[in-house]
């Protein structure tokens, strides 16, 4: 087999920023001995280094420079066609006991797994360069911020990590100043990008991650799903905070009154769109700003409120469907300095995807590099094609995104993609009921993970693929946070995806989600009408502002807000089945909440 990642030999002054921390040096030496790379490249995250690596990656055909006049500073990467999404079946939580990982995770015994991985990594980097990437997750001034080092043999990973994290010097300095000297050890090797030798392994007790056999972002940018969520959630429980699969947005009224909300939706359910929402004409003067689009780390502030930071430095978003109509701020963000993966390439060196504004190109290269025309049966861009872009490109980036203490959260929103059952929005009665609403979240599956698309699966708090420990214990942790909050956020559940009898979406979504957001903000301020239903507080049709929504009938609104006992009977049964699969660790508070909803329907 050809070497997928041939070594590069940098000139002096590049790739030689060796840190002095002995534990880092020892670990790098240990991995070097095992993987036997041709050389070690110590990354510093500088402009100079980036320019050099971009050049090398182009020379090796790993990335392709896009038309500078059309998308300045941007590149296209095509992944191996067998490697286009997260692989949950090969994602392992390696805790000493199976019970600690819980029934929703794939568990593997740590010592055996280390031995297996060591076998796979032995000599795996021969003829390759081993990059060492220092990075931090979280704003430099935050007490929640964590240091990580990722070893990788993929230059694409280095280029992506520079976008997605704060990389280089800042991490080395933070570790120097750190009192406990803790840092996350991440090892990644492409191996031969063979699905049969693909494993994403987490060792929460060791604060360590080993990922082999994949080059796809969600599996190999170890900062993101692996550290910020799986290891992060484990640390959060131990240390009394929350690591969540949530966007964070700010919403400011024309009078300057500002609230922040955090929202958990499963993968590819519009978190990025919601985080960058542009209020419709009718809401002139209202502003929405983005703190984060995927992950929130939250802790209790001195005033007893919940405060959130975005640990990331960039966005790794799904491309297809992104347009000036669906998300103008995302489009403006990805007009430059963007690393695209698996989109189509037009004949004039621009990128294209299904759902992009304007006409389809008459000819392009599809995501596999094959000729494509509008007559082709295959999609031009892979449904899970992605952009990686610095958050600085976002025209509505929140000014407090770097604030160490984070932003105060007024509301937590849970939501899923549901064709039926779930009304457009409801408010939980209190924290415990809200935890139940999050714990029973369900959503129709999307292309962000391999497997069947369109089936409802339970995805508590959108964390099913990302909780690094036992789900029942995770619920208990959530239940414990509530009473510690003097001023807890209100908890809501939304569903932008309910369909009518004709199979069409009932709600326009996108910018018009502002109308629902406004109702939630009103509720936070003690205004906003609602009726109490068995599942919580639901706005009456007159409580939701639909002015300016063309062709939107009051029947549609009534249908959207309806809570149908026959649908809920089924829903409650499947929730109960799901709770049963969580076994003995399932907190009784949540089964009681379930039973109370059932009683209210009776
Ligand atoms: C993501 C995901 O990539 O959730 O953010 O899959
Ligand atoms: Mn995500």
Shape: globular
Ligands (ions, cofactors included):
oxalic acid, manganese (II) ion
How many strands, which pairing sense, and closed or not: the largest β-sheet? 9 strands, mixed
Helix content: 25-40%
Rg (CA only): 24 Å
The first-to-last residue Cα distance is 65 Å
In terms of structural class, how would the helical and strand content be classed? Answer: alpha+beta
E-strand count: 31
Separate helix tally: 16
Provide the residue-averaged pLDDT.
96
- What is the assembly state of the chains in this entry? single chain
User: Which residues sit in consecutive blocks of at least 5 with pLDDT less than 50?
Assistant: none
Note the beta-strand portion.
15-25%
What does this structure look like?
The chain is α+β, with helices and mostly antiparallel strands. A hairpin with a 4-residue loop joins strand 10 and strand 11. The radius of gyration is 24 Å and the shape is globular. It binds oxalic acid (OXD) and manganese (II) ion.
List the SSEs and their pairings.
Layout: H1 22-35, E1 39-42, H2 47-59, E2 64-65, E3 75-77, E4 91-93, H3 98-101, E5 106-107, H4 110-121, E6 129-137, E7 146-152, H5 155-164, E8 166-167, H6 169-177, E9 184-189, E10 199-203, E11 208-212, H7 217-220, H8 223-239, E12 242-244, E13 247-252, E14 258-264, H9 271-275, E15 287-292, E16 296-300, E17 306-309, E18 314-318, H10 328-333, E19 339-341, E20 344-346, E21 351-352, E22 364-365, E23 371-372, E24 386-390, E25 407-415, E26 425-427, H11 431-439, E27 442-444, E28 456-458, H12 471-484, E29 490-494, H13 513-524, E30 531-533, E31 536-538, H14 554-561, H15 565-581, H16 588-601
Parallel strand pairs: 1-6, 3-19, 4-5, 4-10, 7-9, 9-11, 14-25, 25-29
Antiparallel strand pairs: 2-3, 6-7, 6-8, 10-11, 12-16, 13-14, 13-15, 16-17, 17-25, 18-24, 19-24, 20-21, 20-22, 22-23, 26-29, 27-28, 30-31
Manganese (II) ion binds next to loops.
